[in-house]
Amino acid sequence: MLASQNFNGTTRHLREDSDSDDEVLASTLVEEALRDDGDYDDMDSAGGGHQISGENIQQKLAAAATPLDFQAPLQNRFDSYDNYCSLFHFILNSEGPVDLELPTVGSFSHYVDTPMGKMDATTYYWAWDAIDEFIYQFNSFCSHRNAVARKEGAGTEEERKLLSENPQTWGCYSVLNVLYSLIQRSQMNEQLAAIKKGQDPNEVAGEYGSRPLYRMLGYFSIIGLLRVHCLLGDFTLALKTLDDIELNKKAVFARVMAAHFTTYYYVGFSYMMMRRYADAIKAFSHILVYVSRTKNFQKNAQFDSVTKKNDQMYALIAICVALCPTRLDDTIHASLRDKYGEQFTKMQRGGPDALPIYERLFLSACPKFISPIPPDFDKPENNVDPSKHHLEIFMADVKNSMLAPTLKSYLKLYTTMDLKKLAAFIEVSPEVLRTQLLVYKQRSRQTRWIEGGLLEGETINTSDLDFALQGDLIHISEAKVGRRLVDWYLRNLAKTY
Predict the structure, then answer these.
(1) Which of 14, 50, 153, 200: CA 20 to 30 A from 482?
(2) What are the Cα distances from residue 182, in Å, to 98, 251, 307?
(3) Which residues fall in a compositionally biased region of kind Polar residues (predicted)?
(4) Torsions phi, psi of 491, nearest 5?
């Protein structure tokens, strides 16, 4: 979603490998075009319980990958949860691997080669749809339950009673248990580790992992864990789940456009919340460039759902670039200026006027965070809105960064400067300024994404300015790369002969 892509460089590196990716991109376009995103039947017939028979297996398989209506009644959400429980129980706890005939994807099926072997495209499309819808319904249910518990105009007294009496329905533990169980049953982490070492994954796949159904469910469950941990606010663990997946356009997840988009969205957002803005910008830039290159080729329902989230992606990259100025791809930069021209300028300038813009963009672009525990229906005032909670955390960091543009403008004027003198210029106390300088220095030094690991790397200076504190004295050094005029003259002289 497994050859490696190195995010060490800037957007230039994305352009350099674009030629080698054209074949993969074309292959993905053809596969997506073959897929028919038609609607399945309603889920009214999805039954509860953990027993499953041959008569309703196809019904449950189809329902597992079918989007639930946004306005579906609460009872339908309970029935859907029972359907998932019975289906995953059947898949995970049957005596030996189950052999299921999956619902047909499109008017006909086709086979594709993946790093994990040749398989029917129906398998990985259905596996992604099932995992994706499973997590979406979990997220939607938890958000609705929390809103009802806070009495924010959502839900009736009957719903409040039903939700309070069933705290384990769509519980966080049960969802995580399904995802981890699918990964473990398929030996997916072991298979991915073997592929990275150039070994045959079938040697470690085991009885279950060698089956395409278990293999793809396990693979996409890793992407699901990234998403769930991010929704729960554990951004470090979210990224840690991808240790064995190398992010590039040749990966398995990249063959399903929604999976490709989802992976980079949550990776980028996790980096942003960890204050690793340079890495977040690279992740967002990658997927936005990809979408801009494919928007004229695909008009199916899946692509339409992806393009609807483009504004969210641009809002997030606007936040990151304002906090960590970086050169962007020309296409992204132009779109960013069109969408958020004046707002983006205010964010870059900083100051009190920029704070409401940060808040508005964050709330419009962040995922719908959820609480890991059921809400307290007896004391609505004790229930915190998870999205507002994470907004407060994020805005606290933004406020610490507000002085960065002003600091940079003053520091560029001097090679040495007294801390108290600079504090007087910007009208803050020396103690506050010392803290702001440390925050600014941390901002300018980011951690690289290196080949073979998301969380390992070396520090690099992403700013053209560096400084050091020696007591109350600031030593400033500015790194400027001058024009190489000798090379220019040599090139032009060669043209004259």
Answers:
(1) 14
(2) 13, 20, 30
(3) 1-11
(4) -65, -40
* CA dist 39 → 31, 36, 301 (Å): 19, 9, 10
Q: In terms of DSSP bridges, do strands 473-478 and 117-120 run parallel, antiparallel, or are they unpaired?
A: unpaired
| Residue 103 · residue 58 · CB < 8 Å | yes
Q: Which helix (H) or strand (E) holds 318?
A: helix 310-323
Query: What single-letter amino acid sits at 469?
Result: L
438: part of which helix (H) or strand (E)? helix 430-444
- pTM, two decimals, is 0.77
25 phi/psi in degrees, rounded to 5: -60, -45
- Calculate ∠ Cα 33-35-39, nearest 5°: 130
Sign for the CA dihedral angle at 168, 169, 173, 178 comes to positive
Residue 350 has pLDDT above 60, yes or no: yes
d(CA 44, CA 40): 12
CA distance 325 to 319: 10
pLDDT in tens, 204-259: 988 998 898 999 999 999 999 999 999 999 999 999 999 988 887 778 888 888 88
Comparing 16-20, 122-126, 283-287, 319-323, which segment has the lowest mean pLDDT?
A: 16-20
Query: 206: left (phi > 0), else alpha (psi -120 to 50), else beta?
Result: left
What pLDDT is recorded for position 267?
Answer: 95
Query: Which pairs with CB-CB distance under 8 Å and at least 24 residues apart come from 73-79?
Result: 74/159, 74/162, 74/163, 76/43, 76/44, 77/137, 77/140, 77/141, 77/170, 78/48, 78/166, 78/169, 79/43, 79/44, 79/46, 79/47, 79/48
Task: Please list, residue by residue across 89-128, b when 16 or more beta carbons sit within 10 angstroms of its beta carbon and e when fewer do.
Answer: bbbbeeeebbebebbebbeeeeebebebeebbbbbbbbbb
**Max CA distance (Å), the chain:** 88
Please answer whether residues 133 and 66 qualify as being in contact, where contact means their C-beta atoms are separated by less than 8 angstroms: yes
Over 457-478, what HEC string results? CCEEECCCEEEEEECCEEEEEE
With a cut of 50, say whether residue 458 has pLDDT above it: no
**Residue 159 contacts residue 144 (beta carbons within 8 Å):** no
Token pair listed for 39: 């609607």
**418: its two tokens:** 């007294």
Judge contact between 226 and 263, C-beta under 8 A: yes
Both tokens assigned to 19? 């030629």
